[in-house]
């Protein structure tokens, strides 16, 4: 376990990592330090073979109100370029383990983009999503136009990004951005439960499923189906696949070892 003031990390015995943002005074706004810590944490979790699933949350009240707007007051183009903050997001994108966002309260701008870096989004009833950058004379810069487009389609995306409207959890679920809506007090616990279920499966199968599903989104259907078929075949070379099938016939829980 490693803790510091603006981000905490707890790893359970079952291999579930809980990453929590903690800047309540700024609604968990993602300043440079927080983004750096998030990036380092995801690099660490990617490499830690005991970690099988990750939950990211902002806690009970707010997920994240976006990038820290204070960082934008005097920044010039070259300063923004030289910050190369895309590298911090990339370590989350590159994480091979399933990521579940547990969202209560606001997930706005970079906060909504952070949630969209996850593979599953669990929202509390109070959650509100939005890309309000246009109100600041800006636009989404960490995938807001593109990930939203792929999740909810062009006509909803345009409405969100051109008006900056906030969308409640239930509506976001209907559009396909949110996987499940639960009572606020259950959001984190429910996300952890899903992570525990995933962590109980073969990590090789789980990571292949994540990789193929994400890669397939941007391929032709034929290419993506071939990718899926090859990954499916590769799993037959794992001890976990034999264990899973044998356990089924022996009517016992499978013991996956990640080999
Ligand atoms: N940044 C900095 N401080 C923030 C903040 C933010 N995003 N959001 C809230 N705060 C601060 C407020 O200034 C206030 O501070 P004090 O006045 O107490 O000192 C405190 O948090 C509480 O905020 P409120 O008083 O406003 O609290 P409310 O509950 O009434 O409202 C709110 C909460 C989240 C609805 C509201 O604060 C709000 O609208 N916040 C701004 C939301 C927003 O516009 N977000 C988009 C930011 S732009 C990039 C990649 C990504 C991005 C940029 C670059 N690159 C790859 C280069 C992303 C950009 C963005 O996200």
UniProtKB/TrEMBL annotation:
Name of one Pfam family that matches: ECH_1
The keyword Metal-binding belongs to this UniProt entry's keyword annotation: no
Organism superkingdom: Bacteria
Example of a GO biological process term: fatty acid beta-oxidation
Keyword Repressor set for record: no
Xref: PROSITE patterns: ENOYL_COA_HYDRATASE
Family (UniProt): Belongs to the enoyl-CoA hydratase/isomerase family.
Protein name per the record: Enoyl-CoA hydratase
């Amino acid at each position: 376990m490693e803790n510091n003031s603006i981000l905490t990390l707890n790893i359970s015995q079952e291999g579930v990592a809980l990453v929590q943002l903690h800047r309540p005074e700024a609604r968990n706004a993602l300043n440079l330090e927080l983004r750096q810590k998030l990036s380092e944490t995801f690099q660490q979790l990617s490499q830690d073979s005991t970690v099988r699933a990750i939950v990211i949350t902002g806690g009970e009240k707010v997920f994240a109100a976006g990038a820290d707007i204070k960082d934008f007051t005097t920044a010039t183009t070259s300063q923004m370029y030289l910050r190369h903050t895309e590298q911090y997001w990339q370590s989350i994108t590159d994480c091979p383990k399933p990521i579940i966002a547990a969202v209560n309260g606001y997930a706005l701008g970079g906060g909504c983009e952070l949630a969209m870096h996850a593979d599953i989004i669990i929202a509390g009833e109070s959650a509100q999503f939005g890309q309000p950058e246009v109100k600041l004379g800006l636009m989404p810069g960490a995938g807001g136009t593109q990930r939203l487009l792929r999740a909810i389609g062009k006509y909803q995306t345009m409405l969100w990004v051109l008006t900056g409207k906030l969308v409640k959890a239930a509506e976001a679920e209907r559009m396909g951005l949110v996987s499940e809506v639960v009572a606020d007090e259950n959001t984190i616990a429910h996300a952890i439960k899903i992570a525990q279920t995933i962590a109980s499966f073969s990590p090789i199968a789980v990571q292949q499923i994540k990789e193929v599903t994400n890669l397939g989104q941007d391929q032709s259907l034929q290419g993506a189906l071939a990718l899926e078929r090859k990954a499916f075949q590769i799993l037959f070379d794992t001890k976990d696949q034999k264990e899973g099938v044998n356990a089924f016939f022996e009517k016992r829980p499978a013991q996956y070892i990640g080999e």
